[in-house]
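Researcher: Let's run the pair from yesterday's discussion. Sequence first, then tokens, for each.
Model: Starting with the first of the pair.
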Amino acid sequence: MSERDILPPGSSVPRTPLDSPAPASLRSEKLLSKPIALIQLIVCSAIGLVMFFVPFTIGDKSTILFDHGATYLVTQQHTLSVTLLFLLMIFGVGKPFIDGSWRKNLTHKTLTVFKIIGLVLAVMYMTGTAPAYMMEADMLPFLFEKLALPVGMIVPIGALILAFLVGFGLLEMVGVLMQPIMKPIWRTPGSSAIDAVASFVGSYSIGLLITNRVYLQKQYSAREAVIIATGFSTVSAAFMVIVAKTLNLMEFWNIFFWSTLVITFIVTAITARIPPVSLFDNDVERPPLDHTRGKRLAAAFDLGLATSRQATDLKQILWSNFRDGLMMAAAIVPSIIAVGLTGLLLAKYTPVFDVLGLLLYPFTWLGGLPEPLVAAKGMSAGLAEMFLPALLLSEADILTRYVAGVISISSVLFFSAMIPCVLATEIPLSVGKMIVIWFERVALSILLAAAFGHFAMYVGWMA
């Protein structure tokens, strides 16, 4: 297994490795000329960066461009967006039965049941037949209008825009430039940079597929696979927009995005050095990488250009990413409605998260959050579904909302999707160990996010 075997999302052909010439099969393929490839690399990367990270003011709202598009669909084309959402949910519910995946194991069966329940709940909401306690403003109406609809629109559109970030060489350039710091900081090989970036700007499911494949080919040790799966395989940047919108943080999108990325990776560097992650076996045999071709910046540029030369089918790359986004949205929307309602009902009518929140209370208190116990209880709900802290704390003060947003991303592990996905791989993680890792990540994230949040408010970055 070499770096050429690690395919980022949006890849349509094998990537040229940094330390060896392209294989004969690749050299025989039609490639773009270097000038055209360079223009494509610059233009497509610029489009992706502008669409994801440059806010524009339209009307009275300042946010990134594709969020404007999704908001337009949800607010101005509500009937159309609801119709599209139900088509997505119907497909998401039917797919496990069409391909037989619901039979694979207990996890798939459980998730399929949740998808069915989510679709039924959506129908009950639209027809007004749900019980009164479910139709309260902070229950099904909130889940459907403020979560399901935006997710159903943003994830596919975001996946389409992500093609410009991950399909034309920028991802490979970032991966190469990250290689020298991966081992000393995160105790993972340089090639795992691609897993990390693919997960953060793509999706955790794709990141997990990459990690599992490399681990099965014995090029990651058990510890390295666990670090990557529990530290880098967080929700996509597209879904981060949903979190930021729910918490009314889009005005500070760049601050939120980049600080969350840094905090997530700092927490991963810490958890990689403490139990239970540090106790996993670290034996692995892989050949050392040879970087004799030149300086790293030049090598990164060469690989980015080589990737751009291979990206000859723009329509196929865009469609592949959009299709993946549709598949992801269809899979998560119905289950999020079901699990989200379960979590909200537990939070409102039972002491489950009150008890779990007591374990996090010391950290929210140390972080100086205005209402530390309320914040701790809300953030503890992230174990059930990563979005619940954002839902439960959407009306809190700005500092608590910011910390809740960071927690939703940096905690990585949650029962509605991520934990079942890990259990479906060969990565040797048990539920018990994942719960311990979740607690460590949340506690550390609270302290780091609170510290940065206080600083950002002090210097005027967040008002």
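Model: Moving on to the second of the pair.
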Amino acid sequence: MPHTDMNTNLTPSTSTSVAPDRLTRGEVARTLLWSVVVISAVANMAASYSGADTWVHLVCGMVTVLCGGTLAVRALRGRR
């Protein structure tokens, strides 16, 4: 005997919803922040191996900390 689903809605949906494959602004921001964190950390490591000036390390470190902090704040606010 074939299985029939009695909960299937045969009427067309009238609700308007956002397409599930669209990116939100929050997802784009999070991706960009993670990209900047990785790039600045790699730049800081490259500066360490190349013997760059101290200001290069400080700038890379500040960018990494600011982006990491922003990611942490966004994650904590998202839990509410």
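Researcher: Give me one sentence on the second I can quote.
Model: The chain has two helices and no strands.
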